Every structure is written in structure tokens, then in C-alpha cells.
Amino acid sequence: MGTYTTTKCGNCGHAFETLNYGRHSIVGPPKIKCASCNTINMTSFKLYRDMGMSNKIYFWIGQVFGTAIMGLVSFIIGVSWLYYMTTNGDYVKMWEIDNYIGLLILGGIPISLLFKGVFHIKDLSLVKKSCEAIEDLYDKNGGFILSDQYFND
Ligand SMILES: [Zn+2]
């Protein structure tokens, strides 16, 4: 569910793909070790635990806001689709009981969008977990994250 940001090794140009949850590009390993040439690259990321209080607040406002917007958009699309189908003359026929395929297709999409909106909130718990996973790995390695490790995580 994350988005991928690609950066390059400053030494050999090997491309790193770093996994970021949502829009919090400020959180991540400050040092990434290139899996190709073993050079340690400094990044503009900070570990969550090293961020100041104002950055943490800013970070969570962005997370909650982004998640809420995504959830809300899915929810509104789902509701308006259902409303359109049940009020528009052409589509009402699709709801006739003998039209099972029409019911499945036209009913399934908005309903899954509704669920998507409701369950989007779950992403927030993943964000904190991904922050902690980065910190654990960072410590285990002794102060850096291998580019491949970060990508696979
Ligand atoms: Zn490299």
C-alpha cells in the first residue's frame, strides 16, 4: 500500500527504491548503504524517533488528513454510484432481480469502494509499524539500512 520513491547511489548510480508509506517522505533511514557498491549514502530522511515534536505533529496531521481524504473520496464515489444507479431510469433495469450479472457488477463496485473507504483507516497503524521496522533494522545493521533490505521490507 506504500508508494515508491526512487533515489540513486551517489557513488555508482545504482537506483534505490525506497518504500514510503503514504505521504511521509520525511520519515526514513538517514543513511542507506548501497547494495551494489557498499557506499553509505546520506538521505534527507529522519528516523521517526529522531524527529522533533513539531515534525511529528506535522507528520501525523498529514497522515490522518491524507487517510481521511482517501477514505472519504472512496466512500463518496461508492455512495453516489449507488444513488445514481437506483435513481437513473436506464440503470434501474440493472437492479431487476433476474439480472444477476448486472447486480453483481454494478453492485459490487460501489460496495467494494465503500469498504475501501471504511478500511482505509487501517493504513494508519501500518505507518507506525513501518517506522518502527525501519528503526529496528537500522539499529541491527549498526547505523544504516541496506538499499535492498529497505526495498524488500
Ligand atoms: Zn552504489
Sum up the structure in keywords.
single chain, about 150 residues, alpha+beta, 2 domains, 3-stranded mixed sheet, two-stranded antiparallel sheet, elongated
What does this structure look like?
- 55% of the residues lie in helices and 13% in strands.
- The chain has helices spanning 53-87, 89-92, 100-119, 123-141, 147-152; strands spanning 3-8, 15-20, 31-33, 40-42, 145-146.
- With 153 residues, the protein is of the alpha+beta class.
- It starts with a strand and ends with a helix.
- It has 2 domains: 3-50 and 128-152, no CATH class; 54-124.
- The strands form 2 sheets. A 3-stranded mixed β-sheet has the order 4-3-5. It has a two-stranded antiparallel sheet with strand order 1-2.
- The longest helix is centred in the middle third of the chain and has 35 residues, at 53-87.
